[in-house]
C-alpha cells in the first residue's frame, strides 16, 4: 500500500483515508529542494502534485505496547546460546 511505503520513508504512521480500493500502479518522482530541509518535504510535494493526494498531519490514537517489567532473561533455544 502507498500509505505503508510512505510511512516507512517519512518515519511516521500514515492512515489511508482516501477510500480507494484495489491495486494502483503509481510512480512518484521526488527531487529534494535545496531550499527545504531534507527529502521529506519533497515527498509531501510529490504526493500532492503527481497523484493529487494530500498528506495531512493530525493527532490520532494509535495502538501501542509498553513493557515495564520482564522477569526472565531472553534465551535463544535454537542455537543453545544464552544472552546475558
Q: Main β-sheet, in a few words?
A: 2 strands, antiparallel
Strand content: under 5%
**Order of helix and strand elements from N to C terminus:** HHEE
The average pLDDT score comes to 76
The count of DSSP E runs of length 2 or more, i.e. the number of strands, is: 2
Instruction: Identify low-pLDDT runs.
Output: none
With strands numbered from the N-terminus, the spatial order across the biggest sheet is 1-2
Level of helix content? 10-25%
What does this structure look like?
By secondary structure, the protein is mainly alpha-helical. 23% of the residues lie in helices and 5% in strands. It has 2 helices and 2 strands; from the N terminus they run ααββ. It has a two-stranded antiparallel ribbon with strand order 1-2. It is elongated, with a radius of gyration of 20 Å. It starts with a helix and ends with a strand.
Map the helices and strands.
Elements: H1 2-10, H2 40-49, E1 75-76, E2 81-82
Antiparallel strand pairs: 1-2
Key structural traits:
two-stranded antiparallel ribbon; 2 helices; mainly alpha; elongated; 84 residues; single chain
Summarize the structure.
It contains two helices and two strands. It is mainly alpha-helical and 84 residues long.
Amino acid at each position: 500500500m502507498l500509505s505503508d511505503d510512505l510511512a516507512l520513508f517519512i518515519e511516521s504512521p500514515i492512515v489511508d483515508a482516501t477510500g480507494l480500493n484495489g491495486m494502483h500502479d503509481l510512480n512518484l518522482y521526488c527531487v529534494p529542494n535545496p531550499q527545504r530541509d531534507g527529502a521529506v518535504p519533497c515527498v509531501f510535494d510529490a504526493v500532492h502534485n503527481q497523484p493529487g493526494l494530500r498528506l495531512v498531519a493530525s493527532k490520532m490514537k494509535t495502538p501501542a505496547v509498553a513493557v515495564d517489567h520482564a522477569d526472565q532473561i531472553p534465551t535463544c533455544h535454537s542455537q543453545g546460546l544464552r544472552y546475558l
